[in-house]
Amino acid sequence: MSVSCTIDNRRSVKADAVVIFIYQDENLFKSQRKDLIDSIPHLQPLLDSGDFSGKKFSTSVGYVGSAATSPRFILVGLGNQSTVTPEIIRRASASATKSAAALRCKHVAFEVPAIPGIDTNTTSQATVEGAMLSQYGFVKYKSNSDEIKTFVTEFTFYSERARANAVNKGATNAQAIVSGVIVARDLANAPNNEIYPQTLAKRASDLGKKNGFSTTVFDKKKIEELGMGGLLGVNKGSVNPPVFIVMQYNGGSKSKKPIVLVGKGITFDTGGISIKPAANMSDMKGDMHGAASVIGTMVAAAKLGLKKNLIGLIPSTENMPSGSAMVPGDILKFMNGKTAEIDNTDAEGRLVLADALCYAARYNPEVVIDLATLTGACVVALGNVTTGMFGTDETTKGRLKAAADRTNEYVCEMPIYEEYEEMISSDYADIKNSGGRNAGSITAALFLKHFVSYPWVHLDIAGTAMLSKPGFYQPKGNTGVGVRLLIDSLRHW
Ligand code: BES
Ligand code: MN
Ligand code: ZN
Q1: Ligand 1 atom closest to Cα of residue 434
Q2: By percentage, how much of the chain surpasses pLDDT 70?
Q3: Rounded distance, CA 45 to CA 66, Å?
């Protein structure tokens, strides 16, 4: 995908299609209609037909012959002006881009709208995000090009001179963020025979070299030396050894405590000996979405040059059943000396995260935020729309909530009252790894809390990581959730 920003106008901009955003309010519609017809008379029949009203996300295509340099105009509705938000811009932009893609347009130009109450920078970022994020597909394994739907590959965002700088800034930020989201989507969508612990580590290292963060990969021997019994326990059934990935981005002053991001990196979750049913098990190739989001966030942060010190930690292994696999009743010992009885080998995420959370303490962090496709219970509670948020740090929870409202990567706080603790008590070890069906995402979060010694927030993205049908600017499959949320919170920190 290529993006350019220019000072141009609707008559002279050159593309396969030009997108114009239109309000639904009667008077605003009338005046936009008049402007359009004055500049491009060929749009009159379309506007007179009444087929297009400016309704939110609706689109109409007009063919304008010699009236403009570009052959097609796509009108897209924003609804009423007073109700427009960045999310509505993202969705409208995505909707228009999808119409253009359906017409096999390769190059689309957007007239960045001037929206009262929203600064141009923000409007531009939202326009670019919606357009680019809508043109994603995991198509690398499709060999028949007829089967691959065509994507828009070239984007131009134009405005008049006065807003050009702000348009450019918003577009530059959007490109950095989108590339982080795409990194996350690509990693999470990749099957386990492409992305397993070693290849995940290789991708993280390559992305670090390219974008400007350092990566260190601990192998099994080093993981043993560190006493990461949770990561080793989950790995016991696998042929591929585990890795522990440490990424470091130093954008802030040396004296500033780092923010540590931890991502669950189970490259495939069969459930282990407590094996999952066959139906939809392939979805579990995305059980490293937390890791993918952390890597995507490191990429975007480095591209943006954020003035923050960030550490990314990823405990990674497959969760496989075999003659050497851990079994229910086994007791594991984590890096901080605590022990857990395995009640269910399918509750593996918390076991690998436990060691990563212990390791995070070495950085004396300002806060640790972990992201994990941790529990089916979270999907039951919040569906595919909202991420479950747990934790001990009110300030960071507040920051994430504010970022969620700006990015529409929603979060909802769930409780971790001490009263739930008895559900994970064990007769033989300090705790056990499953608290049963009730309050399943809460007992998982409480399990993690045993390994935390600093301000902490846990995001359960089991529901928001994957969609069974596409959204406005989200593809079917893995979404890249978390990258926009974290980057937005870091930019407003
Ligand atoms: N990776 C799964 C959780 C999951 C389920 C993510 C559905 C995305 C979609 C996790 O490792 C798991 O299996 N959790 C168990 C825990 C239970 C055994 C206590 C679950 O939620 O059923
Ligand atoms: Mn599992
Ligand atoms: Zn899992």
Answers
A1: 19
A2: 100
A3: 15
